[in-house]
Specification:
Length: about 300
């Protein structure tokens, strides 16, 4: 069967294969159409500007991903009350360079530092500087590393000392939101399925989903097609196919979803001053479903 867009004509993974073998589609023709792989690659490039990744690309991104995770571990170990956000920048920068890699944020569209460090009401793109971490704060560290030309992008939100109830709540919702999003990733599902799953979960827990920042294709460049909103409708948007690599990185607020950008033109904060948390991984659509290239629990 030829590759098709649109869902109405779609054969489900668990439906009988249209070739008449009597097997389930996923056990039969779903991924066996090798000649079509090239067609899909060309189609996704032309139609959506999505660059599907090949085996060697995936290995490169996975390797960059290992460095990203190691940098996050390093940051986590350093975080505590009294620590300046600038110190986290120094750590991540030096670790990255020492490993013959490049911190992607530095000078990206004028961004002045090597990592984003976002405390409490800061949603994302916090610029490391003189802000000092206090007991009970939450702090997101977002690391993107370029290794041998390949990009991997991941972030986590950490507790500073012992968290209060609100901090625990928003961090838990944000982490589970990412997980729910990633678990929706598989061939045949759509970009809208991911956003719907996240929004449905987060709002169900009375968190709000930031609209202005989205996940994104990644690997050959920092921000590639497609965009991956963390809200949306089931079945809408581009269909996921093996070889797609993108981030899932929901930002979840405790209060309203609205934000404002500070005068530095980067720092995004909640309009109502409420806490915001985020987790991000770079994931690959596989024939079986999904593999994280920056895996953590
Ligand atoms: N790492 C962020 C993301 O997840 C982007 C940061 S852009 C920067 O997409 F310039 F602020 F680094
Ligand atoms: Co990202
Ligand atoms: Co990121």
């Amino acid at each position: 069967m030829k590759f098709q867009t649109g869902r109405k004509t779609k054969v489900g993974r668990n439906d009988y294969c249209p070739c008449g073998s009597g097997l389930k589609y996923k056990k039969c023709c779903l991924f066996k159409q090798k000649p079509d792989i090239e067609n899909i690659k060309e189609f996704y490039q032309k139609q959506y500007k999505i660059r599907l990744k090949e085996k060697k690309d995936i290995e490169g991104i996975r390797k960059a991903g290992k460095l990203v995770l190691a940098a996050l571990d390093l940051a986590e170990a350093a975080i505590g009350p009294g620590v300046k956000t600038e110190e986290i920048n120094t750590l991540v920068h030096e670790f990255t360079v020492k490993n013959k890699a490049v911190p992607a944020p530095l000078h990206y569209r004028g961004y002045p530092k090597s990592v984003c460090v976002s405390v409490n009401e800061v949603i994302c793109h916090g610029i490391p500087g003189d802000r000092i971490l206090n007991e009970g704060d939450i702090v997101n560290v977002d690391v993107t590393t370029i290794l041998d030309g390949y990009y991997a992008d991941a972030n986590k939100t950490f507790f500073v000392g012992t968290p209060g109830e609100d901090a625990k709540k928003i961090v838990e919702i944000a982490k589970k939101s990412m997980k729910v999003g990633i678990s929706t990733v598989r061939p045949g599902n759509t970009v809208g399925d991911i956003g719907w799953a996240i929004q449905n979960y987060a709002e169900g827990k009375s968190g709000s989903v930031v609209r202005e920042f989205v996940g994104h294709g990644v690997g050959f460049d920092f921000h590639e097609s497609p965009q991956i909103p963390h809200y949306g409708n089931r079945g809408e948007g581009i269909m996921l196919v093996p070889g797609m690599v993108f981030t899932v990185e929901p930002m979840i607020n405790l209060g309203s979803k609205d934000l404002r950008i500070l005068k530095d033109k980067w720092t995004a904060v909640t309009k109502d001053g409420s806490l915001s948390a985020q987790f991000e991984q770079t994931v690959l659509v596989t024939e079986e479903g999904v593999e994280s290239l920056t895996p953590y629990d």
